[in-house]
Structure formats: C-alpha cells, structure tokens
Amino acid sequence: MTLANNPASGGPRPSAAELSNAASSFRLRMSVIGCEADVALDRTRDRHGRTVHPNAAETARAHRDKAAVEAYRTHLAPHAEALLDVARLALDELPPAQHLAGWQAVLDALHASTAEIRRILERPAVSGSEDERAQHAALWPHLTVWADHGYIPSNLADQRDGGQHQRSPLTDEERQMWTEMAVTAQRRGALELIESWYAADGQPITLAYLVDADESIVVALRGDPGAPGWQVIGHYEHEYEAGKDLPAPVPPGVLRPNLSRHNRPAPAPEIPLLDLLRDVVEGRSAGDASNALLGAVQRGYAAGPMVRLQELVETSAQFAGALETVRGRQVAGRLSALGRQIEFLTQEVQEAAEDLGATVAVLPPHRTPVLRVRPRPAVDTSPPVPPPLAGRPVRHR
Questions:
Q1: Vertex 121, ends 120 and 127: CA angle to 5°?
Q2: What is the C-alpha to C-alpha distance for residues 35 and 68, in angstroms, rounded to an integer?
Q3: Would you give the distance in Å from CA 120 to the centre of its chain?
Q4: Residue 209, C-beta contacts closer than 8 angstroms, at least 6 positions apart
Q5: pLDDT < 70 regions, the chain
Q6: What share of the chain is helix, strand, coil (3-state, %, to 5)?
Q7: 204-212 β-sheet, strand order
Q8: Rounded to whole angstroms, how far apart are CA atoms 150 and 273?
Q9: Radius of gyration (Cα) for the chain, nearest Å?
Q10: For residue 316, how far is the Cα from the chain centroid?
Q11: 3-state secondary structure of 195
Q12: Predicted TM-score of the model (pTM)
C-alpha cells in the first residue's frame, strides 16, 4: 500500500524527488547486499571457481535474500506504487522517441513485480522458519527487478521537473555561426570531445572544448560528431554552466537486455594464466608444457584464457557497434579483425601444443636445479679457510 492510497498515513503525498530518492536508496542498499553476498559466496569456492562448500553457499544466499527483503520494506515498500504512477505520467509527457516503448515495458514489469511482492509480504511466514526462507527466495527475483531497473522510473520522476528542455536555446543565426566555427575547429583538430549523453527525445548531446589560440570554450553539439549534420546548440564557459542549461541525460542503454547484475550465472571454472605459466616452468616433460598450452586454448564451459580473450574482444566489438556512431562502427571493425586474428593465433597455439606433446621428450638431466637456500655452518664452528691466492706463497707460522 502506498502512502498516496493509505488513509492512515495522513501525511502529504511524497514529491517526485522523494520518490526517486527512495528508489535510489533501495538500489544502493541492494548493491551493498550484492557485494557482501559475492564475497561470502567466493569463500565457498575453490581457486578455480568450483563450489566446494554447498551448505555455506546456501546460507549466504539465504542471508542475502533476507537482507534484500528488509531493504525493500525500509526504503521502497511505501513508495513503489506511487513512483510508478508518477513515472507513467512523466512518460506520457515525453516527446516521441525510440526508447519509450522499452521504458513502458519496464514499468509494466516493475508493476507486476510490485504486486507479487505485496502479495507475498501480506502473508508472512514464521520468523526463522524454512517457509520464511522459501518466501525470501521467491521474493529475490522480484526485488532484483527493482534493483536492476528501478533507475528508469526514478529518472522519469526527475524528468517531471522539466529537465528535458534546454533553458536558453540559441537563435538560428547563432546556431549556424557557432556550428561553422566548430566544424572548422574539428577539421584542424581543435575540437576536443568531453562527454556525451542522450536527451529525452532520443538525440545525442556531446560536450566539447572548442580550442582557439590559448583559450577554449565549452560547446554543446547535437548529433553524431563523427558524421555530417551535427549542430552546436549552446556555448558555455565551463561544464557546470552547460549542465544547468542543457537537457538532462536519460539513462544509457545496455548491450544485452536480458542480463542482471544481481542474478549472474555461477562462474565457470577457469585456470588462471599465471597457473599455466607456472606449470610450464615447473614441468619436466614435453607433455607438461603441452598440457599448459592446451589449457590456454581450451574451448567450451571451462574455456582457457586465450578463448576468453577472444570473447572479450568480440564482445567489445559488439559494444562499439551498438554505440551507433561513426567512430564506434570504425572501432567495431578493428576489434572484429583483432578477434579473427586471435582465433587464428589460438588455432596455431593448439597445433603447436599438440606437436610439442608428440615429441615425447623430457628435459636433459644436466639442467640441474640450483639450491635457493645454501647450507649454513654451525654456530660453534669456525668458517672455512679460503684458498690461497694464485701465484703467492702460503705463509706458515
């Protein structure tokens, strides 16, 4: 039940800022809970990521679920429905944009999760019982929906203050003059990009330093600075002044919409690259070095470091392309080419490792180890007499 619909509250309806702050406080608390749970779960795994203490892992998750329920009761339960109502009103007032349909779907999902949370909390189980633990576990997915996506209704509530409009727009003549100056500066390399965001209408805004002689001024660009057609929509002495005048940023998008910070899959077992290097250094046979190399290029669930590197580069290429800018697509092409090179190198390493293992050889015995700690003489013995210098007679008493 929200404060707005609770006749017993008797207080004024919370402002949009208060509702937004309540959601922000819940997300911050959930972030802390998530970090603490990650630390506790790490203690239940071995050095390769395998869970070796399942009972302790179950206890850590139960503690996490209970803390999340308490955080929801404290910060968000009195305000969740009111925040969604304000967010829907703000969404209806925004100019048409490509992202609004996705935001509407997020609000619908949050509304459904809020209803399910309220339904479960209205029938509390006995404190400390297995039923309560099961209730908390059932609530966790719905609480993480708010933790992962609550920033969208918060931002919509903030948008109700009119932050989607520029307060002091330039005239057409001023816009054309400053755009020509900025284009000229860009051609000579004197336009340094600072920061970028999207406004509520879905248009990108970029801050840049326009450098002229020994002075620079902050200009705001609308559009992709790497493509023709962008315009200067404002000029300012510093970034703070620009932030007060320009449309407020809306939350940036995500690369993969089905991922959750609070519901990550269990980490796959992996062997660190330093462990593989140690296996080679401490190895005695060609098979030891061959197995280490094969571990680096292993594919599948427990993929090796070289395969993970290729995944990192290729995923970064997808990210760069998803920026939907000219420079982003250029970087995406470079990263895709690097990913193919790593794939080729991985195949070469695998073939070399198999050839090394086929040598069926061991290190020759003359490669003897060197003692790191030399034996020390006993305390009550005198040090050995050094040998005489060559070419000089030995003195006798």
A1: 110
A2: 12
A3: 32
A4: 191, 192, 194, 216, 217, 218, 219
A5: 1-11, 161-163, 374-375, 377-397
A6: 55, 10, 40
A7: 191-198, 204-212, 215-222, 231-236
A8: 38
A9: 32
A10: 12
A11: strand
A12: 0.84
